[in-house]
From TrEMBL:
It is an enzyme of class 1 (oxidoreductase). One of its GO terms (biological process) is respiratory electron transport chain. The keyword Iron applies. The keyword Iron applies. One of its GO terms (cellular component) is membrane. It comes from Methanobrevibacter smithii (strain ATCC 35061 / DSM 861 / OCM 144 / PS). One of its GO terms (molecular function) is 4 iron, 4 sulfur cluster binding. It comes from the Archaea. This is Formate dehydrogenase, alpha subunit, FdhA. Its EC number is 1.2.1.2. Residues 2-58 form the 4Fe-4S Mo/W bis-MGD-type domain.
Amino acid sequence: MLNLKHTICPSCSTGCGITLISNNKELLGTYPYKRHEINEGKNCKNGRYCFTKYSFNKIDEPSIVNNGKLNESDFKSIIEQFIEDIKNVEPEQFGILCSGNSTNEELDLIKKFSENYGNKLFLYENGFVNLDKTATSYDDINNSKTILIIGDLYDENPLVARRVIMAKENGAKVICADNENKNTTSINSDKYIQFDSVSEFLDSLDEEILDELNEDAIIIFNKVDNEENCQKISEIGLKTNAKILPIYKKCNSKGALNKIDPINLNELKEELKNIEVLLIVNENPLDYITEDDLNSIKKIVTISYFKNDIVNKSDYVIPGKPWAFKEGSYTNSVNTNQNFKIAVPDIVNENLSEIEILMKISEKLDIDL
Ligand code: SF4
């Protein structure tokens, strides 16, 4: 029998609703969530196929990794070895790398664990930081008369771009800036500025554009070079009264940034030199650092439900539960908390959830959570 359940799309930080279709054996597909207030019955390609990420390349068993090959083991042996590894180093030589791929509830637990044990906790969100005054509704886009977009919104966050199209139909002027020669957003904008870097664009923002920014304008950005860019955009917003809307990279980047101060890339690389044991929770740091940056770490344990580069580089891997198999919440780019429940109740997934894994580790380390 087919099972249709509403949930939140995990493919970007917009927070669209989707309906997952499954039978009692597997995830079959998606269907737009018709009444969802953010996407109003539309989903983009990344949303429609979000379930494939969790169906292909999945990891079913806790495994020991040897030269990129996964050899099935069992949870008890891996946890025992991991606990021994942690106990053999000082708390500050043990690090946890988390990200906006985790739910708010998982991040709360990771944070509490780290505070109680005294280990290092790292969050890197692609140069994004938590800014104070950002737009709290996508309706702010519809109501704007001038929209400045930094990055390719149409390709990366199509359901936010849909709001731009609606505003444009109501007469809004759209200015796009990006480093591509041409992108989907630039083609659909009134003015396009090609830059070498976001930093260079912000440093040389011309008066003509600044004059367009006022209380009826919004700056939407899904691309930054670094944390300073975020601060600079925030300052431009304050100076001109334009609203600002960062569109973060991961489904719960905003939730993660609300809880944990992010580290910048250079600091992260430096900090990793002092780490002996690293636990990576649903993140692939090889998207932004190199294998060399991890070379001094003696043990890497990764919680991941699918194979990726960092799993191959790890010593052990423990599969967690994909979002469709657990409940929790994500906070989207307009800071709305979105709860979701188990979306595939008829499919058996025997993996422990990330929360159960962390609870088991904390019990062994006598950490009171
Ligand atoms: S815009 Fe983002 S959240 Fe919405 S359907 Fe596409 S990938 Fe999913």
